[in-house]
Amino acid sequence: MSSENRWDHEVATMKPATHTTFAERTGRMLARLWSGFVRLDRNACGWLVAQGLPAGLAKTILWVVKLAVLGVLLYSAFWLGLLLVFAAIAAWVVRNADADESSDDDEPQWRNGLDGYGLYRGEVRIDGGSADDE
Hints:
The protein is built from three helices and three strands. By secondary structure, it is mostly helical. Strands 1-2-3 form a three-stranded antiparallel sheet, with no helix packed on it. Strand 1 (about 110-115) and strand 2 (about 115-120) form a beta hairpin. Helix 2 (about 20-50) packs across helix 3. The longest helix is centred in the middle third of the chain and has 48 residues, at about 55-100.
Protein backbone atom coordinates (compact mmCIF):
# COMPACT_ATOMS: atom_id res chain seq x y z
CA MET A 1 0.00 0.00 0.00
CA SER A 2 1.27 3.37 -0.85
CA SER A 3 1.24 6.17 1.64
CA GLU A 4 -1.30 8.08 -0.51
CA ASN A 5 -3.93 5.32 -0.30
CA ARG A 6 -3.55 4.99 3.42
CA TRP A 7 -4.82 8.51 4.04
CA ASP A 8 -7.57 8.55 1.40
CA HIS A 9 -10.37 7.59 3.73
CA GLU A 10 -12.86 9.68 5.60
CA VAL A 11 -11.94 10.79 9.03
CA ALA A 12 -14.51 9.78 11.62
CA THR A 13 -15.74 12.67 13.68
CA MET A 14 -16.65 12.33 17.31
CA LYS A 15 -20.24 12.65 18.33
CA PRO A 16 -21.05 15.47 20.71
CA ALA A 17 -20.78 14.45 24.33
CA THR A 18 -24.06 13.16 25.71
CA HIS A 19 -25.24 14.03 29.15
CA THR A 20 -24.55 11.49 31.84
CA THR A 21 -27.63 9.78 33.15
CA PHE A 22 -28.72 9.60 36.75
CA ALA A 23 -27.65 5.94 36.88
CA GLU A 24 -24.14 6.81 35.68
CA ARG A 25 -23.78 9.64 38.19
CA THR A 26 -25.07 7.42 40.99
CA GLY A 27 -22.72 4.59 39.98
CA ARG A 28 -19.73 6.91 39.92
CA MET A 29 -20.66 8.37 43.30
CA LEU A 30 -21.02 4.90 44.82
CA ALA A 31 -17.68 3.85 43.29
CA ARG A 32 -15.94 6.87 44.84
CA LEU A 33 -17.60 6.11 48.17
CA TRP A 34 -16.53 2.46 48.01
CA SER A 35 -12.95 3.33 47.07
CA GLY A 36 -12.88 5.75 50.01
CA PHE A 37 -13.97 2.96 52.37
CA VAL A 38 -11.32 0.62 50.93
CA ARG A 39 -8.66 3.32 51.40
CA LEU A 40 -9.74 3.89 55.01
CA ASP A 41 -9.67 0.13 55.64
CA ARG A 42 -6.13 -0.14 54.25
CA ASN A 43 -5.03 2.87 56.31
CA ALA A 44 -6.54 1.38 59.48
CA CYS A 45 -4.89 -1.97 58.79
CA GLY A 46 -1.56 -0.23 58.18
CA TRP A 47 -1.92 1.74 61.40
CA LEU A 48 -2.63 -1.43 63.40
CA VAL A 49 0.40 -3.13 61.85
CA ALA A 50 2.49 -0.03 62.67
CA GLN A 51 1.34 -0.36 66.29
CA GLY A 52 2.94 -3.80 66.37
CA LEU A 53 0.07 -6.17 65.58
CA PRO A 54 0.58 -8.97 63.08
CA ALA A 55 -1.10 -8.33 59.70
CA GLY A 56 -3.45 -11.32 60.11
CA LEU A 57 -4.62 -10.13 63.53
CA ALA A 58 -5.11 -6.58 62.22
CA LYS A 59 -7.34 -7.86 59.40
CA THR A 60 -9.28 -10.02 61.87
CA ILE A 61 -9.86 -7.08 64.19
CA LEU A 62 -11.12 -4.96 61.27
CA TRP A 63 -13.51 -7.75 60.19
CA VAL A 64 -14.85 -8.02 63.74
CA VAL A 65 -15.42 -4.25 63.82
CA LYS A 66 -17.19 -4.35 60.43
CA LEU A 67 -19.43 -7.21 61.55
CA ALA A 68 -20.24 -5.40 64.81
CA VAL A 69 -21.22 -2.26 62.89
CA LEU A 70 -23.36 -4.36 60.55
CA GLY A 71 -25.01 -6.02 63.56
CA VAL A 72 -25.82 -2.64 65.13
CA LEU A 73 -27.28 -1.39 61.85
CA LEU A 74 -29.44 -4.50 61.43
CA TYR A 75 -30.57 -4.29 65.07
CA SER A 76 -31.53 -0.64 64.63
CA ALA A 77 -33.30 -1.35 61.35
CA PHE A 78 -35.27 -4.18 62.98
CA TRP A 79 -36.57 -1.97 65.79
CA LEU A 80 -37.28 0.91 63.43
CA GLY A 81 -39.22 -1.44 61.15
CA LEU A 82 -41.14 -2.84 64.12
CA LEU A 83 -41.97 0.69 65.25
CA LEU A 84 -43.26 1.54 61.76
CA VAL A 85 -45.40 -1.62 61.72
CA PHE A 86 -46.96 -0.73 65.08
CA ALA A 87 -47.57 2.84 63.93
CA ALA A 88 -49.31 1.56 60.78
CA ILE A 89 -51.45 -0.82 62.85
CA ALA A 90 -52.36 1.96 65.28
CA ALA A 91 -53.33 4.27 62.41
CA TRP A 92 -55.47 1.51 60.89
CA VAL A 93 -57.21 0.88 64.23
CA VAL A 94 -57.88 4.58 64.77
CA ARG A 95 -59.23 4.98 61.24
CA ASN A 96 -61.53 1.97 61.55
CA ALA A 97 -62.68 2.92 65.08
CA ASP A 98 -63.88 6.29 63.74
CA ALA A 99 -65.75 4.58 60.92
CA ASP A 100 -67.53 2.23 63.33
CA GLU A 101 -68.68 5.04 65.60
CA SER A 102 -70.01 7.20 62.76
CA SER A 103 -72.03 4.41 61.17
CA ASP A 104 -74.55 3.93 64.01
CA ASP A 105 -77.76 3.23 62.12
CA ASP A 106 -79.44 1.99 65.29
CA GLU A 107 -79.99 5.45 66.71
CA PRO A 108 -83.09 7.26 65.38
CA GLN A 109 -82.54 10.48 63.43
CA TRP A 110 -84.85 13.30 62.32
CA ARG A 111 -84.30 13.68 58.58
CA ASN A 112 -85.83 13.66 55.11
CA GLY A 113 -86.22 10.12 53.84
CA LEU A 114 -88.29 8.07 51.39
CA ASP A 115 -91.49 8.72 53.40
CA GLY A 116 -90.86 12.44 53.88
CA TYR A 117 -89.50 14.27 56.93
CA GLY A 118 -89.64 12.24 60.09
CA LEU A 119 -87.83 10.09 62.66
CA TYR A 120 -85.90 7.32 60.92
CA ARG A 121 -83.96 4.32 62.16
CA GLY A 122 -81.86 3.23 59.17
CA GLU A 123 -84.15 3.58 56.14
CA VAL A 124 -87.43 2.96 58.08
CA ARG A 125 -89.60 5.80 59.39
CA ILE A 126 -90.59 5.08 62.99
CA ASP A 127 -92.54 8.17 64.11
CA GLY A 128 -95.88 6.91 62.85
CA GLY A 129 -96.43 9.75 60.42
CA SER A 130 -96.94 9.41 56.69
CA ALA A 131 -95.85 11.32 53.62
CA ASP A 132 -99.37 12.73 53.23
CA ASP A 133 -99.15 14.62 56.59
CA GLU A 134 -97.03 17.38 55.11
